[in-house]
Amino acid sequence: MAPRVIEQRGLWYEEFEPGVIYRHRPGRTVTEADNVLFTTLTMNTQGLHLDAAYSAGEPFGQRLVNSMFTLATMVGQSVGQLTQGTLVAQLGLGEISFPQPLFHGDTLYTETEVVDKRPSGSRPGQGIVTLAHTGRNQHGNVVARCTRTALMWMESARDEG
């Protein structure tokens, strides 16, 4: 008898339910190295991310984690639970905001609400899902929000293909 094999995957289009909230764990504690590496890799020369002496004299009194790192990590935290292996393509991001900064040593926790879904009008066997990601620090303060539109496989179409 062959062993039962379970492969980690995200959700098929049919499994998404508007109004459901997914909490993605574990959180991600952001280090100084993360921030400096991401900032320099993306050629962002903003002193608020790289220059500790300069940042000490600014309103937050310390360096800020690059908001694009926060956004990318927030979306990335959802992949294993929602879109791993079931995503056709990311269609877009919208309504992005950063209400409070994230600092070195903070831990980012993300949750995702399924906002809407509809079958694709032009791509049989696929559907469009709208997700709202919210990132919070270890104190529960909202540090980032965004909506994300994803093109997802329908399970029946994926099995046929």
TrEMBL record:
Family matches, as InterPro entries: HotDog_dom_sf, MaoC-like_dom, MCH/BMMD
Pfam families per the UniProt record, alphabetical: MaoC_dehydratas
Gene3D superfamilies on file: Hotdog Thioesterase
MaoC-like domain: residues covered: 18-134
Bilayer-spanning residue ranges: none
Entry similarity comment: Belongs to the enoyl-CoA hydratase/isomerase family.
Protein name in UniProt: MaoC family dehydratase
